[in-house]
Design brief:
Elements (H helix, E strand, L loop, with lengths): L1 E4 L13 E2 L5 E3 L7 H9 L4 E4 L7 H7 L4 H13 L6 H20 L1
Antiparallel strand pairs: 1-4, 2-3
Helix pairs in contact: 2-4, 3-4
Length: 110
């Protein structure tokens, strides 16, 4: 499973998770095979990305390895870790990891 931006979706892709609007309302159900019409619906509801089957998500460790040695990126990662110091519950840990993942993807893409 992996998040795919709306612009990168192709007909025939299958949703791994339901597509939700900004308020968490279900727009399309899990397992749905996407068509061009679905893309219009997602765009109308301002859905930026959906979780699609068959797309592998890169691990945090792999992303961190890609930016190893970049001083500015390392400093930003330390700042993220500092902001979540003591995060011992699952929700905060998930939030920290998602912030790190998005930051690292952005750095890795240049």
């Amino acid at each position: 499973m992996g998040l795919v931006k709306l612009a990168d979706l192709r007909p025939g892709m299958v949703l791994a998770q339901p597509a939700l609007d900004r308020k968490g309302n279900k727009i399309l159900r899990e397992g749905m095979t996407l068509t061009a019409r679905h893309f219009e619906v997602l765009k109308a509801w301002k859905v930026a990305a959906v979780d699609v089957q068959g797309v592998d998500e890169v691990s945090l460790e792999e992303l961190e390895a890609k930016v190893a040695g970049q001083a500015e990126a390392s400093a930003q990662l330390r700042e993220i870790e500092a902001r979540f110091a003591g995060a011992d519950d699952e929700l905060r840990t998930m939030l920290r990891d998602e912030i790190k993942r998005r930051f690292l993807k952005k750095v890795a893409q240049g």
